[in-house]
Amino acid sequence: MSRSPKQIPLHLNISEQIHQQIIDGSYLPGNKLPSERKLIEEWEVSRITIRRAIANLVQQGLVTTYQGKGVFVNEQRKVAYTLSNPLTFLQNDLTDKGIELSLQNITFELVTTSTKVQKILQLPRNNPTAYLQKKLLLTDKVPGGVDITYILPEIGHKFATELKQNMTFPILERHDYPIERVAAIIECTNANLELSEYLDVPLGHPLLVYRHTAYTTQNRPIVHGETISRGDRFCYAVNQLNLTKGLNRK
């Protein structure tokens, strides 16, 4: 006795068809989907079916629901930063790809660091201070990530004006603080209230974290921080040579 094909639930069928409309360009990034009422009328289904269909699209990262505003199509194009050897600075890499990188300074202040940051940057115990900088990174004028960086106090004080307006590594190189190596780890997190506001994503939205420590000559750490970016806007490409070296060092 042959078995009939498994029937696809109605809410999945609807979400897949809307997905296809997004791929085809019927709904462009930033477009608002029809209201819940209009979707109910169009598909002749119940409210709960439409809500489940929208939830499917949200789970796939295709749309975002904003309370009181509606459901909007997400930008699907991701910015790829190549973690290469020798080091290619983010701004240069994106410029080569035809992507405009800009930044907005959020915070730049001298702070007493945590014990962890003090140890990483090898700060003196009697004065464990460093400059804390937070800046919003925009790719083609769309919020893509928040960079949170601790900078050695003498460097932060000397180049404060430049650091508030430009990316950190090129400034250090320009002032004879060459970046000899970067120790980094990539992991995932979810948006807290602050990040959700800066990156224009819902609370709990999945984010990528690129945590790094930069070293200049004589293996001296000068910068430690993390770039927290939207997973739907940013990704990292790893050079195979770097990967092999990383494995050999373990």
Entry keywords:
single chain, 250 residues, alpha+beta, Arc Repressor Mutant, subunit A, Chorismate lyase, 2 domains, 6-stranded antiparallel sheet, two-stranded antiparallel sheet, 10 strands, elongated, disordered N terminus
CATH superfamily of the largest domain: Chorismate lyase-like
Order of helices and strands: HHHEEEHEHEEHHHEHEEEH
Low-confidence stretches: 1-5, 241-250
First and last CA, distance: 57 Å
CATH architecture name of the largest domain: 3-Layer(aba) Sandwich
Largest sheet properties: 6 strands, antiparallel
Approximate strand percentage: 25-35%
Determine the structural class based on helices, strands and strand pairing: alpha+beta
Major sheet: arrangement of strands:
4-5-6-9-8-7
Total domain count: 2
Radius of gyration: 23 Å
Mean pLDDT: 84
How would you sum up the global shape? elongated
CATH topology of the largest domain: Chorismate lyase
Percent helix? 25-40%
Q: Give the number of helices.
A: 10
Instruction: Look at the structure and give the CATH class of the largest domain.
Output: Alpha Beta
Structural commentary:
With 250 residues, this protein is α+β, with helices and mostly antiparallel strands. The protein has helices spanning 10-24, 36-43, 47-59, 90-96, 115-120, 153-158, 160-163, 168-174, 193-199, 240-249; strands at 63-66, 70-73, 79-83, 101-112, 129-139, 142-151, 181-190, 206-216, 220-230, 234-238. The chain has a 6-stranded antiparallel β-sheet. A two-stranded antiparallel ribbon has the order 1-2. A hairpin with a 3-residue loop joins strand 8 (206-216) and strand 9 (220-230). The longest helix is centred in the first third of the chain and has 15 residues, at 10-24. The chain is elongated, with a radius of gyration of 23 Å.
